[in-house]
């Protein structure tokens, strides 16, 4: 049985669903193939399914803020396509307080430091 051919074949129903769906589809097609062999094939790394699930890290570093107004995050959103209908505001400045989660949005006519 050619597992790598099945894994890369878009017409095979298990190729688009990730590891678990691939195992179920192969078991339905060829019941004599052991589940352990399929899992070892998927873990080999050289061959993967067409749309493999995204691997997320187990540990994410948290943000530590001692009090309100201690740590801020800011982002600038450019509204170039619809600035004529929004009263001439080309940018929106978003500011988030990391401790409280408070959000402030300020419309800006230009995205420069002078404003």
Descriptive report:
With 115 residues, this protein is of the alpha+beta class. The protein contains three helices and three strands; from the N terminus they run αααβββ. The chain has helices at residues 3-7, 19-29, 35-43; strands at residues 72-78, 91-97, 103-108.
Task: Identify the notable features of this structure and list them briefly.
alpha+beta, 3-stranded antiparallel beta sheet, single chain, 3 strands, 17% strand, 115 residues, 3 helices
Average pLDDT, all residues: 77
Net shape: elongated
Class from helix and strand fractions:
alpha+beta
Query: Secondary-structure element sequence?
Result: HHHEEE
Poorly predicted sequence stretches spanning 5 or more consecutive residues:
none
Gist?
This protein is α+β, with helices and mostly antiparallel strands and 115 residues long. It has helices at residues 3-7, 19-29, 35-43; strands spanning 72-78, 91-97, 103-108.
SSE topology sketch:
Blueprint: H1 3-7, H2 19-29, H3 35-43, E1 72-78, E2 91-97, E3 103-108
Antiparallel strand pairs: 1-2, 2-3
